[in-house]
Write a structure and sequence with these properties.
291 residues
């Protein structure tokens, strides 16, 4: 029973890592850029939802606040691309990486100014509720996290592989000039993908806040999610989720059967092993870039 309890807890945490990793992969698939502020976007989405729902702020009904906060995060993602990322056009990817790292510091600072540095929780209808399956107690928040993550990953996978817009996004990432000559509005497509990544970060923030407390440093989970994306295979949506689940499951088992401190080191030890023995990731989708 203890094994199953640890497994469920790890899967729920891994789903949050996987959702943040999905944001990394979404932007990379469409623009070949890496947004290291994705974890901070998740944290911001959590705080926005807390601000909309908690009684000391706006006190909106929980189910009404969800689409509002997700929409706000989508708009912020689009505005980031429109007024910041596009101005980096022609610069090296290293410059974009440094920019997003600096943006993460700014987001954490602003979040601290607005909401303070004390941990805050999201008031939600699933808090404190659980179900028992075969002697294993499952928190409703954990169940919701797992279900929503699986549905969202499947939807995004289908979107990128079966819709014209999704295929256009992948085409724009391979060769922007060729995509432009084929009639694809490259700038608009990239703006949409940043908006989509912002919305996914918002969903991840809501799910994380439903499980536990949030503070500005929560955004640093993006580092662990980046490791999960690399482990799963950067560029693969299912791989991002799988990497997140692997990292999430490793942590509680390392803490229980090795030592508490090893739970934080184990994901990065696995990352090192993957980079050495399978550099493209465990579930990579290696493709030849067309020029």
């Amino acid at each position: 029973m203890e094994f199953l309890q640890l497994l469920i807890s790890g899967l729920a945490n891994g789903c949050v890592y996987g959702l943040i990793a999905l944001g990394f992969v979404l932007i990379y698939k469409a623009t070949e850029a890496v947004n290291f502020a994705q974890g901070d976007f998740m944290m911001l989405g959590a705080f926005i939802t807390i601000g909309l729902t908690n009684a000391e702020y706006m006190a909106l009904p929980f189910w009404m606040a969800l689409p509002v906060s997700i929409g706000i995060m989508a708009v912020l993602g689009y505005l980031l691309d429109r007024f910041v990322i596009r101005r980096m056009f022609g610069e090296s990817q290293t410059a974009v990486v440094i920019l997003t790292i600096a943006l993460g510091f700014v987001i954490r600072f602003v979040a601290g100014l607005i909401w303070g540095h004390e941990p805050q929780t999201l008031e939600n209808p699933l808090a404190g509720k659980d179900i028992s399956v075969g002697g294993v107690v499952l928190g409703m928040e954990d169940v919701a996290v797992i279900i929503v993550t699986l549905l969202l990953t499947w939807s995004l996978y289908e979107f990128f592989n079966r819709t014209k817009l999704g295929l256009a996004m992948q085409g724009a990432s391979q060769n922007q000039l060729a995509a432009y000559y084929m009639g694809i509005p490259v700038k608009r497509v990239q703006g949409l993908i940043w908006a989509l990544a912002g919305a996914v970060a918002g969903i991840a923030g809501i799910l994380f806040a439903a499980k536990g407390a949030v503070d500005p440093n929560t955004g640093l989970l993006g580092i662990k999610a980046f490791a999960a994306a690399v482990i799963g295979g950067f560029g693969s949506l299912p791989g991002a989720l799988a990497g997140g689940l692997i990292v999430g499951v490793i942590e509680p088992f390392a803490a229980r059967y090795i030592a508490a401190g090893y739970s934080q080191v184990a994901p990065y030890a696995l990352l090192l092993a993957v980079l050495v023995f399978r550099p493209h990731g465990l579930f990579s989708q290696v493709r030849v870039k067309k020029v």
